[in-house]
Fold this protein.
Amino acid sequence: MDLTKRFNKNLDKIEVSLIRQFDQSISDIPGMMKLTLGEPDFTTPEHVKAAAKKAIDANQSHYTGMSGLPELRQAAADFVEEKYHLHYKPEDEVLVTVGATEALSAALTAILEPGDSVLLPAPAYPGYEPIVNLVGAEIVEIDTTANDFVLTPEMLEEAIVEQGDRLKAVLLNYPTNPTGVTYSREQIKALADVLRKYDIFVVSDEVYSELTYHKEAHVSIAEYLPEQTILINGLSKSHAMTGWRIGFIFAPALLTAQLIKSHQYLVTAAATMAQFAAIEALTVGKNDTLIMKEEYIKRRDYIIEKMSALGFKIIKPDGAFYIFAKIPAGYEQDSFKFCQDFAREKAVAFIPGVAFGKYGQGYVRLSYAASMETISRAMERLKEFMENHAD
């Protein structure tokens, strides 16, 4: 008996990520410094932890409703209204999810069918495509490398027209993993002007929305396209709460009524004590991110200075906590091999750009969610490595 032949055939399209493959290939190197993590190196604020402890002591350990605690949905609605000028009714337009990842899974499995296509600006976070593939749909990438990783209205419209009736959704992520690129109000409005002409969903992953570094505040596309947008967000990046697994879906009531079906049968509900912590984060701690932002900006600017001096081309990121750097000419352009060689010689790990799709080849991604001491040592070792490998 071979039951492996009876799995969902779409699993054959899903492979172990190149990020994981790379990590395994260097895991035996002693003393490795990893600038790879996609999570803050800060700890969850003390007052947020205290709120969770209080909930545990009060025996708040039973199921909440499928949509989450009413108080948390209200806090989330208030937060996005104050920060991003968005208007959602907490009773039927906000879902509390198990992180942004489950929010994405619930949204994409609810809207996609076999044969559908989803447009995705690339390079992109590699976690989207497996979800899409699992339901028999297909990711179609839009190459943004020639435009400094910025999606233009012209690129978007051309891709939409080319896909035709197959197209079910456009998946946006900004500030973007891996590039750190984000969009101005004018750019978002221009993209929205294109999207509103078409009967398609806009799934917008804005989990890095609180980590923007230019003067203009983050602008959500939901402000311009509220009826089409399924907005994804969460507390992992903004409040250093990756392990708490609290995310959100914001969408019009008609869409939410359908989305809750997939959410319900994926997870039932998010952890109750984590939801009480999230209420604290979104109310008392609504500006907790500001302290982290100041430190991230220092780290970002330091890395850009050091790597630019070594010949790396870097589009200055205005959000998230990643540097996506082009390997200089004259060096190994296979990003997987470049990062392997660097890791083996200098015990420092970057993520190969190809892990973010074919349009990431020739780049490396490093996270500055690490201490300045670690970053400084890593930059010293990178300088030595580049000098040793120069033509």
In short: The chain has twelve helices and 13 strands. The mean pLDDT is 96. The first helix runs from residue 18 to 26.
